[in-house]
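# step 3/5: fold
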Amino acid sequence: MLALAPKPSSLTAAQPLAVASRWVTSGCDGRGVWGRCTGTSAEPYDCVIDHVGVAFRCTCPSRSTPCKHALALLLLWVRGSVAEAETPPGFAAAWLAGRVAAVSPVVDSPSPPPADAPTDAPGSAAAPSPAESLPLPPTRDGRDDRVARMSAGLAELDRWLDDRLRTGLADPALARYDTWDDLAARLVDAQVGGLANRVRRMAGLVGAHPQWHGHVLAEMGALHLLATAGRRLGSLPPHLADSVAAAIGWQVRQADVLAGVPHTDHWMVLGRSDTREDRIEVRRFWLRGRDTGDWAMLLSFAAYGQSLDTSFAVGTEVHADLFRYPGALGLRSLLGRRHNEPVAATDVAGVTIAVACAGIGRAIVAEPWLDRYPVCVVAAPARIGARWVLTDATGSLPLQPGVGGIGQLLACSEGRPTVIVAEWTPGGLVPLTLHLPDRSIDIGPVAEASFLAASR
């Protein structure tokens, strides 16, 4: 069933419908399964499944194939809750007949045998009937193979983590790059590339500073959580299942995202950050809706010699449609229609450190493996001991050690409370933008120009 689902959360969405009380009528025979499901519309949805040729039809408006109604009907059928019927109803009979006709071969009338041809002896093998010579139904071997590879890769990752904990973090093998690179390569082969990227980043933590053991152990915990959740997608709530699937590397087609309902607002471009991830430059634009206050993230990628997206300027505002990827937080988005040209963003409002911390906490509860989240605070830079922080009367948040832009932060804020946009990471805040009354100053990490322009 998981292999048939168009996305991991589809099976979860089908579970509440897989009860007899939701179906006005249902039935099955040797070719199909059919039923009428009560939904949000005035009339029940007509759902038909060809379980021999593996095809689906439903009158619901969903763009997914199979939809949740078809998956629910299949669940009822495999549980033995659909009674057999001699004749399908009209809405199912015509479609199933068309399916049979589409796959049935054209059988030529046999020519009469020659007069001297021997007749079949009693007990000899008869010619196959047209029914016996039907072509094999189409299969979903590609998708089935991918699900099997992903499950095997997640199980192998869990075994590897168990081995590492059994031998301890003092194992000299952790200092060898091959230990991590071999695992990452196997995860890529298993089509869980999202976890492969996390493994490669974790390799860079080993020996990086005196406290590296705690950071590596925390990252191992996140990997174990994702490996376990990735093998239980069908039992997770829909939005959480989508988040887990995205984290382990399950791709969602842009066409499917753009087919959703747009989130229209006046979007303020509050921050930008460039990071190098596994030989790829990643640019994040952090947008916040002026009307809703909701955050959104637009991504841009560039390999060696390619260019990053420059269509947005920090400190501007545009009235536009955004389409969100599925997930518990739903931060990642695609840009749809722009309703006007960008204008300067004014009156950017920030929150206190305490409110920002509460927002970060809620985000981590929704996605415990989260490694970046935007905050917009009114705070002043200060130094506590050997570490820089952003502080106000409600508390302080430390900056990431070694982060850039502190000089600009001090010079532009003059040490006073200022509207500052930053990325929260497990290692500390990364300052991105200062929003002053008359302008916005972008101080976020910038991609190396030589990397992006090398092929020009």
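# step 4/5: annotate
The chain has four domains: 8-103, 141-235, 257-325+332-342, 353-442.
# step 5/5: archive (pending)
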